[in-house]
Every structure is written in structure tokens, then in C-alpha cells.
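Run log, item B.
One chain of 420 residues. Sequence copied directly from the ordering sheet:
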Amino acid sequence: MSSIVAGTESASTRQLVEAASVIFSELANRAAPESGVACMELAEALATVTDQAEHVLAGLIAVVDRTGEMKHWGLPSTQAWLRCRMGMREGRAKERITLARQLHRLGRVRTGLAAGELSFGYAATIADAVQRLNDDDTAAAEDILLTAAGEGLSAGKVAKLGGKIHDLVREHNGEEKPPEDVQRGYERSWVTVSRSLDGGCYLKGWLNPEDTAILDGTLAPLAKPAGTDDRRDLGERTAAALTSVLAGGHGATRVTVIADLETLTGADVPGRLRDGTPIPAEQVRRLALTAGISPLIFGRGHIPLYLGHTVRIASAGQRRTLETLYDTCAVHGCEVPGFLCEVDHVDGWALGSPTDIDKLTLCCGWHNRWKHTNPQQIQISKSDGRFVYRTLAPDGIARSRRSIPEHDANPWRDDQSLAA
């Protein structure tokens, strides 16, 4: 067992984090007590400590977010940093970023979380509710939601209150409450449009269940985040999706089926969609004859498309081939969809890389620029016909052991490394 000798007041933040790491490493190797009562007590105490650790983490994330340090490591956003370097899922990363950005405006929440008197769940819920309020309304909202939490409402119910926070703030401030149109029980859907002085407009309305299902089915797929650095909230993404539908942009959807030539001529080799979903050979052959379905056929080893040095911009056929090969940006850990990426010359067009299919990949706009300005921090490999870019630490800084998952601790063991 490791021993810890440290004066907490004189110790640096790094020393305290290292001490906490030793303690939790030791706890991780301890078996839980046999007593259910003891485990319940210890779990509640440990949860309080974990909430306090979340307060510390929020402060650290806030500095990284404000300074943009993650960009020096080839990560375009704070969310990408939390996902790639800390292994957080998208929802968990967003929750912590929101708390980090809002905590300085929430004095009582900050104090309660630091003291272990307010759980992370409540703190994150309140931070999410106030992120689009001004400072005065934030103070009112904080009072309302903390009061609700103090009265024993669950974090889920507090979140529902947060969804109605604008009306609650008006009531708290003694302002007249707007008409509750949604409670009138309309059988027919309705929408009103009110023009604003700056040329925009406000939309207000109510949809019956049937129309709501149509709305959800149309807008929900288009309102998903565009990538790791998409910082728009759901309301902003929904507005963009509605605009896309009204402009007819949603009609450009196509289905790409990938199949060997032998499959179309009778072999029992399944095809696949771009996301890897397998398609039985018989169904592939039926799809190939269906109007509106455009099959992209690869022969054995894939059909190469070469333009050499005569053309810099990839052709439509090359781009479509790349979008089939790459679901996302070629940078390891970046999840910007391939259809939103730019075509990148792997060895650099200016350095003589031809516009040939085996020298091209898809790279999001941010990483494409970053690769050009930081070539010494890009490691390039190729596997199964696809290029993989991995970002390296800045000179003189060693990567932490969490930067590469254990199952991929030696990503170069089978691939030939290429100079950037």
C-alpha cells in the first residue's frame, strides 16, 4: 500500500490530484464490505466526494475551454477533448462542458457543489436550464430551481422545471404570465408567424399528435449534431433542420449500397450500407434494379480513380467513393460525418501529392487546416484501404496513458507509417 504524506494547505493542485489518484487506486483494489448497511453508508459518502471532484473537474475544464489548449493537441473543441482523451460519451461530455461554462454565474450552486451539499445531477441540471438566460434571469432561475431541489424534487423533475424556466422567471419577477395556448386543447394544429423589426420572425403554435409524429420523423434525423465541434443546442439544430426542409435540401438524400461485382452476378456474398449494415445478396440484386437506388459497385480490391497532377479538386465520383470508404473524418476519434468533410491530399497537393483515389481521404475542415499547419503532429497509417490520421502531442509533452485505449495501445503494429 502506498503512503501519502502531504499538508493539504501547502500542497499544489497537482500534488492533491496525485494523492487522490493514489487513494482511489487503493479503493479500486478493495473488496466491498459484506454488510449492506455499511456499503450503503460508504456509497453515499463516496458519492459526495465524487460530486466535489466534479466541481474541481468543472474548474479545470473551464480553463481548457477558455484558453483553447486542446487545439494544440489536434482536437477542434472541448467536447472532442473530453470524448477522445477522457473517453466520455457525447451526453456526458456536453453536461460537463455546460457546467464548466455556467458555474461562474451560479454562486449558490458553485458553493453547494464544492461543499458536497449539492449533487452533480442537480448542479448540471440547473446549469443546463440557465445557459441561454441573462445574468439577472439566471439569478432568479437559480433561486427557483434550488428551492425545488431543496423541497425534495428529483433531478428529473427539476429538469422539467428548467424547461419552463422562462415562465417561472417571469412569475418570480412579478411579470404577467403569457397565455397558455398549449393548454387550450386544440384538435387542429396551428402555427402563427410574427415578424420582428430586424426582418426575422417568431413562430408559435401547437401540433396535434399526428402532426407531431410527422414533424419528429422529418426533423429529428436532420437535427442531429453535425460533428464533435457542433456547439449548437437542440433548438438551434432544429431550426436549421426546418430551414433545410423548407429549402428542399432534405430531398438530396441517397442510398449507397456497396457490393462486389460477383454479388450482382449471382454470388451469395452480402453487400453493405455505408454504416456497415449487412444486406443479403438477393436483396442487393433487387435494390440494384429499383428506381431511386444508385448502387456503387467495387470490383475486387476496389475500382481506383486517378486524375494525377492535372486536377487539384477531386471529382464527384472520387468524392462519392471516399464517402463510401469513410463514414467520418480520417482523424482517429473525430466523428464529423464524411459527407460534411473536405477531400484531403494525404501527402499534400503542394508537396506533389496527385489527385488519385489512393492518395486521397476525407478530413473535416478544422483538421484539414490543422494538418497543414502542424504536419509534425500528424501520424499517418493505412489499414484496409483507408488512411488513419492520429494526432501527436506537442513537442516536449508526453501523451497521457489515457490518450489511446488499451485495446489499441500499439496502433502501428500492423500498419506501415508514412511521413506527413
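Observations after the first pass:
- Strands lie at 190-195, 201-206, 257-260, 271-273, 278-279, 296-298, 342-345, 360-363, 378-383, 386-391.
- The first strand starts at residue 190 and ends at 195.
Flagged for discussion on Thursday.
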